[in-house]
Design a protein that fits this description.
Elements (H helix, E strand, L loop, with lengths): L2 H36 L7 H30 L7 H31 L3 H42 L1
Amino acid sequence: MSTVVIRTLRICIVLLGLGALIGQAVYVPVAAWQSADAHPELAGLAVPYTIAAIVVLACVQAAVVAVWVLLSLVQDRRIFDPAALRWVDVITAAAAVATVVIVATLTHLISWVGVGGPPALLLQAASLVGGVSFVLLMIVMRALLRSATVLSSEMAAVV
């Protein structure tokens, strides 16, 4: 892989990680506080929804770290090392947790709180389909990486 692509991707990864960190530390708590002030009848949801948002952003951070490690393995031409599989598992688990938290939070918002309407319902459906699709895609990618790792090991033994 070219050095330009790797450097550009690393810059994007750092920006994404910093964005998630700023979101956890500043944006989400401030937005929750402002929403609680604007809608006192829903103020009791500020803390649990803030926790949900912080958990989702933590999942993003875990996936970012895993992508960074996988990128380093690609750069060092060691991507077919069995250790790479564990980092794909991290991405898959992070996506699964984030999907569950988002869908559960939106289900609570729509069903029990009774707010959000059609836009929240569409967001819930998109989150469910998108999240499940991504998790399944990562499972397929892991299987492909595992097969390539086995083939690489067999080729190394032959050569």
